[in-house]
Amino acid sequence: MALALVAMLLAACSPKPLESPDQTGTLVVVTRGSPTTYYISPAGEPTGFEYDLVKRFAEANGWQLRIEPVASLDQLFERLDAGTAHLAAAGLSATPARDLKYTLGPKYGEVTEQVICRSGKTMPSRPKDLAGLRIEVVANSSHIDALWWLRLRHPGVKWAEIQASGEDELLDRVQTGLSDCTVADSTTFTIARHFYPDIGVAMELGKPRALVWLMPKNTVRPLRDKLETFFSGIKTSGVLKQLQERYFGHIERLEEADVRGILERRSTLLARYKPLFHQAQIATGLDWRFLAALAYQESQWNPNATSPTGVRGMMMLTGETADRLGVKNRLDPLESILGGARYVLMLKEGLPLRIQEPDRTWLALAAYNMGMAHLEDARRLTASLGRNPDAWKDVKDVLPLLAQSAYQDRLRFGYARGGEARYLVENVRIYYDILLKYEPAYQP
Fold this sequence. Notes:
By secondary structure, the chain is α/β, with parallel strands linked by helices. It is about 50% helix and about 15% strand. It contains 18 helices and 11 strands.
């Protein structure tokens, strides 16, 4: 009798599986916080590649979105097992084990599993070299399956499963020497290596795996059908590629010296000039870390920088631009930073109103480097090639063409080193990511 009573109490306390979002009007999604999935932007808004996708999926079906971050993969799978979330969107790869236990959504990307270790002469280059090393891996991740297959051929390979929300935490432990190696998805590491210059890819584990959303096994057919329709639509329309560009289009590897440079100068030069960037944020509303990222790209935070072409100062302003902005002394760091910030605003305001963020900012940065006239040439050329002149992902592919003789007769303002403008924008995006990670927001 007592056992029956306990069972009844437990059943009463257990959460009930959710009804379908068609019935409740709300889509409940579990995810995990990471640079590739879900995070809070400097403006305090939820953002991230996975968040953007699920938000669009909910809006396409007229549902409210309730997104619920969890602290670990264990918690994420517990929610799916209990049926208290409609789906999990967290950069999860498809594996045979997950296919047996859950309903897998359509493929929307792919990743390769990589063994990440400290760089140098002792970095392992063959699977057998991993024997005896301390390898840490996120508990319940797909990487454990890959390691078990590796261990069948190399029994000396062992690892520790760590309760962590994502791979970034374990990459940090490798960087600081608390562990020898970890396993991470290729996209995650491509972003993380901008923060951790002392680690690298030792080897890859197997073939690329599809990225998918996971749903409980008993998910009703209408929800699965809507998921198929949604992904088919955003692939056909190009929206999926636009989102991939927004979040991952700038993560090509910088030279190691650039990453080391900004990390090393944070505690010296940036600490000295940070109050000036704060003043510029107050004056213009632009995030001080964004302005600092641009200044590092332009001058490595050197207020006396001068180029052979005559641009000078922390923000490398031309004499003509400085005059337009009322900058009397380009070598004065505060004047330069304020002038550069106002110039970015001026360029953003000069673009058509229909251009949305973040494309608006990236296009303005390209104009900061090459001038608005050449940017407009690039946008017109982009349109003539059948691509979107308002999307950075399309314009950046066309920018190098401005230096090619085959296109000169199509340019109103002639030759331009468009490749340099593309290089500047992509670098600033990476430097901004680094400063977002390590520097706090400024709230006057």
